[in-house]
Amino acid sequence: MRIGELSARTGASRRSLRYYEEQGLLVSSRSPSGQRHYEDEHVERVRLVQAFLAAGMSSGTIAGMVPCMAEPNRDRARQALEIMGRERARLSGAIDHLAAARNALDNLIEDNHAYLARSAEDGS
Predict the structure, then answer these.
(1) Among the residues of 12-73, which ranges form H helices?
(2) What is the pTM of this model?
(3) Residue 37 · residue 31 · CB < 8 Å
């Protein structure tokens, strides 16, 4: 598939896809005229990159994990595993903070509902 179709299937702009290539996050083959060509598995790769970016990972961090997938060897696998572990811990901390904020918000919502119920009973 060409870049336009990959863009349509993933929601990533063509500019983003070119950027992913520049950063080593995505690799395409080229036609004799220089057009990029992608395979179906690139759809999942782009979605993975998008998920990691949305989770706050930098393209450099993601690139540190990608070589292990593209050209595996023991050193790359160890390096990627270290990065993955660090990012997992960061995400787990962020999830914990978000869950605590949600719980606090739930408590405020509950308090507000109780207040409104009491107000309705009191007629005020």
Answers:
(1) 14-22, 41-54, 59-70
(2) 0.78
(3) yes
